[in-house]
UniProtKB/TrEMBL annotation:
It is a multi-pass membrane protein. Its main location: membrane. It is found in: Cell membrane. This is BCCT family transporter. Pfam families: BCCT. Belongs to the BCCT transporter (TC 2.A.15) family.
Amino acid sequence: MSKPRKIKSTLNSGVIVPSLIFIVGICLASAIFPATVNEGLNIVKNFIFVNLNWVYVWSVTIFVLFLIFLMFSKYGDIKLGRNDSSPDYSFFSWISMLFAAGMGIGLMYFSVAEPMQHYSNEIFSKNTYVNSAKNAQLYTFFHWGIHAWAIYGMVGLALSYFAYRYKLPLSLRSCLYPLLKNKIQGRWGNAIDVFALCSTFFGITTTLGFGVVQINSGLEILNIVPSTSFTYQILIVVTLVTISVISATTGVDKGVRILSNINIMIVILLMLFVLFLGPTVYLIGSFTEGIGNYINNFFSLTFNTHVYEEASLPWFYNWTILYWAWWISWSPFVGLFIAKISKGRSIREFIAAVLILPTVFNFMWMSVFGNSAIWLDNHVAEGALSALANNPDALMFRFLEYLPLTKIISFMVIAIIMIFFVTSADSGMFVMNSIATKNAKISPKWQIAGWGILLAVLALFLLNAGGLDALQSMTLITALPFSIIIIIMIACLLKALSIDKKYYEQEFSVSTVPWSGKFWKDRLKQIVTVDSQSDIDKYIDDIAKPAIMELQNEFNQNNVEAKINECNDPKFIEIEIQYDLLNNFIYGVRNESKEVPEYFQTEENLSNIEEGKAFFPLAYFGDARQGYDVKFFTKDELIADILKHYERFVTIISEEKNEMFISSNANRRMR
C-alpha cells in the first residue's frame, strides 16, 4: 500500500512571517493596553482626518470619475481574461457574492442606525422635520452609494485585469506590474501583500466584532440569552466561525455561492415585508424623491469639504471621511474577492454591475428601513427611536417592535446577520490565504481553516479586552497610504489598457496579398455545397497539414524553432513558435461546426448536412483573436495567411512599449 501523500503548506514566508508579527503585535498591544493604544492611534487618526481629509475626498472622486470614463470608453469591451473567456458564475450568483462580501453586516448594522443618527444630529435637527429627514436620507445614500462601490470596483478591476489578462498572480502586487515589472516578485511585492493582508485581517476582525455584538444584542432583546456577556459572545463566535470554516473548505463554488444566494433572497423578502407592512406610500415616494435629490446633489456632495461650515466639520470627519477611510481599508479584501469571482466579464459589464446594481439595492434598503424608522419615530414612537440613536446594536430590533410579527422578523434579521457573518468570514479566509500564498491554486484545508481560527481567537481576545476601537483606528489610518497606492494602480491600469488595445487592433502589413481568383470555379463549387465532418478532416490532412509542415521546415532552416501540434479528435493542426511572451505565436486550423437553419436544409445541394450541422476549417490564433473560415484557401494561400499573422506578431513584440506582455509562465493555448 502506498503512503498517503503529505499535504504541504503553500504559505509564502516573505508575506506570512512579517504579517503575523505585525497582526499579533498590534492585537496584543490593543488588548493589553487598550486605552493607551487607542488614545495614541486616535491622535494619529484625528490628525489625518482634520489635516489630510482632502486626500480622501480627491482619491474617491478620482476613482468614481475614472471608472465612469472606462465604462464609456473604447476599453469597455476588453475582457477580464482571454478574448474568448466566459464568466465562471451566473449573473445572479456573481452579484450575490460580491454584495455579501462587500457590505453585508454593515447594511444590517447601519440601515436604521445611520439615518436615525443623521436625523437626530443637532446639525440637522435645527431644521424642520422634512429637511432633517431629507438630509438623513441624502447623506446615507452618499455614504453607501456609488462612491463606496467605486473604491471596491477600482481595486477589483485592477486585480481582475492583471490576473486574468496578463496571467499574473491574483495579488495587489500584480496591479503595479507596469511600474515595478519583475520587482513585484521581490521585496516590493512582498511589502504590498503584507500591507494588504494586515489591512484585510484588521478590517474583517473589527466588522465581525460588530456583528457579534449586534447578534448578542438581538438575542437578548428576544430573551434567547439573558445578557450580552462575553460568554455568549464566545458561543456565537465559535458557532459561526465553525460554519464559516466548513463553508470555506468546500470552496467558492459551493459554500460561499450557496450561502450568498440564500441570503440575498432572504434579504429581499425582509425588505419587501417592511415595505408593504410599513408606511408603503411614504417609502416609495421618499425613495423616488431621494434618488432625484442624490442625483441633483451628486457633484456638490462629492467635492464638499465643509470648510465654510465649521460647525459641521466634526460631523464631516466622523461620518464622510471615516466612511471613505473605512471603504478604502476594506478594499484589498473586497477587491480581491470580487476579482476572484469576476473572470470572463468585460470591463464595461464589471463596472456597470459593481457601481450601479449594489448602489440601487443599497438605496432601496436604506430607504425602506431608515425612512420607516424616521416615519415611525415621528408619527408613532414619539421620539423613542431617535432617543436610541447612539445604541446601534439594539436599534434595529427596537425598530422591528413597531411592525407586525416582531419576533419572527427579528429572528429573520439575526439569521441574515449570521449568514452575512459567515459569508464575510469564509470569503475573508479565501482572500487572506490567497494573499499569503501568492495566489496558490490549491492549499490544504487545514491552512484555510487556520485563518478562521486566528480570526475567531483575536476577535474574542479584543472583544474581551475592549481593544476593538484601537484596531478600528489602526484600520482607518492604513487607508491613507493605500488611497495613494490605488491612484498609482489607476496609472498602471491605464498604461496597460492602452497597450492592450493597440496589441489586439494591430493591422496587417499593406504588403499582404489576398488570395487570387485563379481557382474561381473550384471555389464556386465549395460555396454552393456544405461540407461534412469528414470533408473538413480531409481538408486539414490534404491542405492545412502540408502547408504547416512546409512552413515549419522553412522556419527551422531560418533558425526559428517551430513545432507542430496536432490531434485527430477533435481534428486540428497548428504551428507554434515560442517567445516566452504573453502568448506564443500560434496559428492553427481545426474542424469546427455550425448550426444550419431548418429552412436551408431542404436545398438539394446540402446532402452532406449531419444532424443539422455544417462543418468548416476554422483558423485560430494563440492570443484568442476572432478566427475565420479558411476552406477556400489553397496550400500556398494558407502559408501566406500564416505569414501575415506572423509578421503582425513580430511587429508587435519588437516594440518596446509591449514589454509588459512578457511573462515566462503565461503561455496557454485554447483550442
